[in-house]
Amino acid sequence: MTIAKDDIIKEEILKEAQKLFRQYGVKKTTMEDISKAMGKGKSTLYYYYGSKEAIFDAVILKEMGEVFDCVKQAVSKATSAEEKFKAFTLTKIRAVQKRANLYKIVTGEQKDTMRCIKHLNTEYNTHETQLIKEILSFGIANGEFAKHIKKELDILPSVIASSLRGLERDIFTTTKYAKFESRIESILGIMMRGLKVN
Fold it and tell me: Is the confidence at residue 63, as pLDDT, over 60?
């Protein structure tokens, strides 16, 4: 019973903090603001989270989890490795854009918070790289991708993940990628040709 109550309160803290971080940014939001939004005392916040940074970590972890679940679901519905890569990329970009706090980190608007989320980012990147490895393995197993890339599976998923993250960052921070969906499809098409059986 206590665990359920604790989970409800923690979820409420994150929900209110998420709104305030989105509206005012992390720097301008105080523990007082979050406690007022919840209608509870600051002591409640400190009982569950030691600092505003800890709350922000939890908010970002929650948003990263939501994005990853969304991406994983889209990938699982696709039937070919090429469609899985497309689902992976497009779903992630759309999902990050909808989550303002995570979006601000990706676009570099909240550089001051990078210290807080570095370890979360590393964890997310590990999951993302593993998912790319699974897509590549799926493509090899069903004959879409050349068998010789199997020996590159220790590094190729990281290279692809880094390349896609660079593209995503450019999409978020510049206007040079008008109609990004068609551009990504074109770029993914080029990448797929390099992976396919000759």
Answer: yes
Q: From CA 137, how far away is CA 174, in angstroms rounded?
A: 33
The residues, any chain, with a CB within 8 Å of residue 112's CB and separated by 6 or more, are 26, 27
* 3-state SS assignment for residue 54: helix
- Is residue 178 scored above 70 in pLDDT? no
* Beta pairing partners, 145: 196
SS3 (DSSP) at 145: strand
Please name the amino acid found at residue 159.
V
Q: Give the whole-angstrom CA distance, residue 42 versus residue 57.
A: 18
Residue range 128-165, pLDDT digits in tens: 999 999 999 999 999 999 999 999 999 999 999 888 77
C-alpha span between 109 and 5 (Å, rounded): 35
168, 118 in Cβ contact below 8 A? no
Sign of CA dihedral 68, 72, 75, 81: positive
The pair of three-digit structure tokens given for residue 45, joined into one six-digit string: 């916040």
Rg (CA), the chain: 20
- What's the distance, Cα to Cα, between the start and end of the chain in Å? 60
Structure tokens belonging to residue 132? 């790319």
Phi-psi region of 30 (alpha: psi -120 to 50; beta: other; left: phi over 0): beta
